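Standup notes
- HV: blocked on the assembly model, inputs below
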Amino acid sequence: MPFEERLGGDIKRVEHDLMLVKQQAVRPAGLTVAQYATLLVLNEHPGVSAAELARRCRVTPQTMTTILRNLEAADLIARVPHEVHRNVLETRLTEAGRAAFEVADERASAVERRLADEFSAEERKTLRALLARCSKALTDQA
Amino acid sequence: MPFEERLGGDIKRVEHDLMLVKQQAVRPAGLTVAQYATLLVLNEHPGVSAAELARRCRVTPQTMTTILRNLEAADLIARVPHEVHRNVLETRLTEAGRAAFEVADERASAVERRLADEFSAEERKTLRALLARCSKALTDQA
DNA sequence: TGACGGCTATCAGAGCTCTGATATAGCTTC
DNA sequence: GAAGCTATATCAGAGCTCTGATAGCCGTCA
């Protein structure tokens, strides 16, 4: 199958473009895209565990450990042991973390809005349905 | 904008699924996805420069340098100075490189085929058109 | 009670990817 | 010929991502 006919190439290209644009968007806040995504989940679910963060951000726990290490070094998050489960660390935004997130979120949301505005509601629905089928086709009995 | 409503999340998820499945596909050949993609272009365009490879694989020249370093260390490619332009290095597959590529390509193509078979010709056309508009919306006046 | 399975967290290491900076070659223009 | 532009290649460094391996905590169940 020739290179250009592969659906994977189209998916890869869009994701790549998205990453580049988002990177430029969150950069002024001093964040990477992965850090922004982590802070986004953290903002909606304070005190969540690293393992749960990893699942929601779709990365491995090891990857999340790396991201959290950098965020903690920059004092954007704080991690404290769970009340009951001593093995679990609860992670929360610091004041600086929330501030950085809000700066980044304003710009990142604008990117998402620009993307969404390209399509009608009907088209968005179609696109999401097709993408969901891609995931299904790829994941089923992989 | 809530996390789940973002189109970027859907795109990210599909790309992520694709990478995982492809990684599993090319792994038995001893290749990474990036290496496989590089060998794929190299197979279709022997003697191409690293800069051109970078453009076709949609990575920076620096990233391609890293990939080529690993491929050369594994004797899967050979690089020789260009006849005229001494500044340019021509890259070609070695015998081992071609062998590894063919093993990987058989399995990777199967993944692409599985993905393509999920859709009718009409649906594929629609999906690609929508994805192209995503790229356009993201890239224009970024 | 103790073994087991499942969850948590993290270290180690390889590889990919980016930004930033540097050096060289060739072509164009003055 | 020198200046400047463009393209090549690569080093340096930070960060993300994966696989593999290790270790601790908690529940269940024999």
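- HV (later): unblocked. The domain at 3-139 of chain B is CATH 1.10.10.10 (Arc Repressor Mutant, subunit A). The mean pLDDT of chain B is 92.
- Next: hand off to the docking folks.
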